[in-house]
C-alpha cells in the first residue's frame, strides 16, 4: 500500500489565470461527496469553493435517497393504518392522496436543503452556480446558466460531479410511459400498474412502495435473483414477501422493448412474453456524470465506463487532484461519499489517514421488509475458500417484532471457522426485517473491528428490542445460546 502524498494546503501563491479567484479547495459538484468535502475542509479553516449547476445536496437530497425514503414512509404509514384493527384501533380503509405525499416530500427536502446551505455558509464555503469543467493548472471553468464564463483556481481540486440514471435501448425516457427515478420521485399521482426493470436496491424500493399503495407491479430482473450482491437467504426473504403481497417477480429475463398505445404500453421480455402496464420504471443503476468534466491537459484519466480513475487514496494522478462519490467506481452510497471526502481532506491537511475499506461498508435497502448488511456474504466467503460458521435467527421469536406485528425476516451472521471448528471473527452480518437499517450499527462495528462472537456477546442487549436478535445470534455462535439453539 503506497502512502499518501502530503497535501497542497499551504498558502503559497499560485500562478494566476488573469484575475481568477483562488481557493485552498475547489469542488466540482455539490452532492454528498462534494458538500462533505466542503464542510470538512471548511471546519479545518480551508478556503473552499463549490461549483454546482443545480442545488447543493445533489441527487441524494433532491432526486434520490431522501425523496425515495419519504415515499417509502408514506407506504409504511398506509400499511400501519390498514392493519390498525389488529390492535383494536377501528378505522376505515385508508386512501392515498399522492399529491399531498409529494408536497410533504418537498417540504422535507426544502428544509434539509435550507439547513445544508446555511451550514455551508457558516463554514464560509463559497458556492458558484453553474457547470464546472477542470482545465489544466488546477483551473476550473464555470459556465453559468446564462452562458457566461468565469474561472477559479484551487490549490486542490475535488471532482464530485455525481451520476445520473442509466437507460437501456428500446426504452427511451419520455416522462409518460417510461420513467427513471428522477421522474418517479416527481409524480403527483400513481399509475394503476407498472413494470420495474431492474430488481436491485432502487428497483425493489420502488416496487415495494408502489405495491403497498395499490399499484399492480411486475419486476423484471436480468440476473438470476432479486437484489444481486445481497446474501441469497436475505434476497429470498424479500422475494417471498413480494410474492405474498402480489408483486410479480421474473428473474433471469431480458427486456426487448415496449409499444405504447391508448391503454398504456406493452412491455416485451423473455422468450416472447409481454405485459401491459400504464408505466415502465427503468431502474438499472446509475452512470457517472463525467462527460465534459475534463478539458485538455488535466492528466486525469477516465475508464471505458466513464468512471474517473483513482487510487485507494482517491488521487487521480496529478498532484492535488482528487475524485470521490458516484464519479468513481466505488459503492454508490452517500455515506461512502462522506468517507471518501474525509480521506481527501485529511491528505490535503497532511494528517494521518486510512483508505476506505469498501469490502466492509454498511448497506441499507429500504423496501419492505428492509435489508441491511456489512461484509462478506456466505457465498462470497466460500468462493474465496474461507471455511465459515453460519448462524441464522428469525425475527419470529423476537418479542418486540411480535408486538409490532412485523415478524418477517432474520439475522444471519457469518464467521471465520477456527481450527477447532468454533466460530472466529465476524466476516459478515446480513439482516432482513423490521427496521434493520437502524440496527446495523453494532454489526458494522463488529465486522470492522474483526471482533469474535465471544467479544460481541459480552455486551448486553436491551429487552425488548429488535436488536436482541443480533445479540442472540452472536451468543449462539459462542456455543451457548439462550433462546437460539
Features:
alpha/beta; 13 helices; seven-stranded mixed β-sheet; FAD/NAD(P)-binding domain; five-stranded parallel β-sheet; 485 residues; Enolase-like, domain 1
Q: How would you sum up this structure in a few lines?
A:
By secondary structure, the chain is an alpha/beta fold. 29% of the residues lie in helices and 25% in strands.
Describe this structure in words.
- The protein has 485 residues and is α/β, with parallel strands linked by helices.
- It contains 13 helices and 22 strands.
- The strands form 5 sheets. Strands 1, 2, 3, 4, 5, 6 and 17 form a 7-stranded mixed β-sheet that branches.
What is the CATH T-level topology of the largest domain?
FAD/NAD(P)-binding domain
Name given to the CATH architecture of the largest domain: 3-Layer(bba) Sandwich
Number of helices: 13
- Low-pLDDT sequence parts: 5-16
Mean pLDDT, as a whole number?
Answer: 95
**Largest β-sheet summary:** 7 strands, mixed
Query: Helical percent range?
Result: 25-40%
Write the layout of secondary structure elements.
Elements lengths: L20 E8 L3 H12 L4 E5 L5 H6 L1 H18 L15 H25 L3 E4 L1 E4 L4 E5 L5 E11 L3 E3 L12 E2 L1 H4 L8 E5 L3 H12 L3 E6 L10 H13 L3 E4 L3 E7 L2 E6 L3 E5 L1 E4 L3 E3 L32 E3 L10 H15 L14 E3 L4 E6 L2 H6 L4 E7 L4 H6 L5 E8 L5 E11 L6 H9 L4 H5 L10 H10 L8
Parallel strand pairs: 1-2, 1-6, 2-3, 6-17, 8-15, 9-10, 9-15, 10-11
Antiparallel strand pairs: 4-5, 5-6, 7-16, 12-13, 13-14, 18-19, 19-22, 20-21, 21-22
Amino acid at each position: 500500500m503506497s502512502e499518501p502524498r502530503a497535501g497542497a494546503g499551504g498558502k503559497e501563491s499560485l500562478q494566476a489565470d488573469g484575475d481568477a479567484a483562488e481557493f485552498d479547495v475547489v469542488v466540482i459538484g455539490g452532492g454528498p461527496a462534494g458538500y462533505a468535502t466542503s464542510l470538512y475542509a471548511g471546519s479545518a479553516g480551508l478556503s473552499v469553493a463549490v461549483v454546482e449547476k443545480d442545488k447543493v445536496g445533489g441527487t441524494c437530497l433532491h432526486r434520490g435517497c431522501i425523496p425515495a425514503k419519504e415515499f417509502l414512509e408514506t407506504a409504511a404509514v398506509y400499511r400501519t393504518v390498514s392493519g390498525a384493527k389488529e390492535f383494536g384501533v377501528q378505522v376505515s380503509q385508508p386512501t392515498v392522496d399522492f399529491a399531498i405525499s409529494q408536497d410533504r416530500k418537498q417540504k422535507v427536502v426544502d428544509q434539509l436543503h435550507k439547513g445544508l446551505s446555511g451550514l455551508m455558509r457558516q463554514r464560509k464555503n463559497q458556492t458558484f452556480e453553474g457547470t464546472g469543467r477542470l482545465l489544466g493548472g488546477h483551473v476550473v471553468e464555470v459556465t453559468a446558466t446564462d452562458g457566461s464564463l468565469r474561472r477559479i483556481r484551487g490549490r486542490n481540486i475535488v471532482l464530485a460531479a455525481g451520476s445520473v440514471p442509466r437507460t437501456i435501448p428500446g426504452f427511451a425516457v419520455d416522462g409518460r410511459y417510461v420513467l427513471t427515478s428522477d421522474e418517479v420521485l416527481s409524480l403527483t399521482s400513481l399509475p394503476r400498474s407498472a413494470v420495474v426493470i431492474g430488481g436491485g436496491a432502487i428497483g425493489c424500493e420502488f416496487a415495494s412502495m408502489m405495491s403497498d399503495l395499490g399499484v399492480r407491479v411486475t419486476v423484471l430482473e436480468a440476473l438470476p435473483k432479486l437484489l444481486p450482491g445481497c446474501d441469497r437467504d436475505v434476497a429470498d426473504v424479500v422475494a417471498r414477501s413480494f410474492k405474498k403481497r402480489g408483486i410479480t417477480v421474473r428473474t433471469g429475463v431480458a427486456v426487448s422493448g415496449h409499444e405504447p398505445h391508448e391503454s398504456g404500453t406493452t412491455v416485451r421480455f423473455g422468450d416472447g412474453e409481454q405485459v401491459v402496464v400504464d408505466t415502465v420504471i427503468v431502474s438499472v443503476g446509475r452512470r457517472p456524470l463525467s462527460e465534459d468534466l475534463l478539458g485538455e491537459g488535466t492528466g486525469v484519466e477516465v475508464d471505458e465506463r466513464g468512471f474517473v480513475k483513482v487510487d485507494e487514496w482517491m488521487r487521480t494522478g496529478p498532484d492535488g487532484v482528487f475524485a470521490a462519490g458516484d464519479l468513481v467506481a466505488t459503492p454508490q452510497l452517500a455515506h461512502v461519499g462522506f468517507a471518501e471526502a474525509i480521506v481527501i481532506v485529511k491528505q490535503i491537511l497532511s494528517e494521518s489517514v486510512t483508505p476506505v475499506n469498501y469490502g466492509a461498508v454498511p448497506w441499507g435497502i429500504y423496501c419492505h421488509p428492509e435489508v441491511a448488511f456489512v461484509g462478506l456474504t456466505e457465498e462470497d466467503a466460500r468462493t474465496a475458500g474461507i471455511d465459515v460458521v453460519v448462524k441464522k435467527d428469525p425475527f419470529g421469536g423476537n418479542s418486540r417484532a411480535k408486538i409490532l406485528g412485523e415478524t418477517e425476516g432474520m439475522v444471519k451472521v457469518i464467521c471465520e471457522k477456527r481450527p477447532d471448528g468454533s466460530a472466529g471473527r465476524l466476516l459478515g452480518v446480513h439482516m432482513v426485517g423490521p427496521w434493520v437499517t437502524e440496527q446495523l450499527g453494532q454489526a458494522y462495528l463488529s465486522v470492522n473491528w474483526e471482533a469474535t462472537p465471544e467479544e460481541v456477546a459480552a455486551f448486553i442487549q436491551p429487552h425488548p428490542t429488535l436488536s436482541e436478535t443480533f445479540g442472540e445470534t452472536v451468543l449462539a455462535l459462542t456455543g451457548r445460546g439462550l433462546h437460539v439453539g
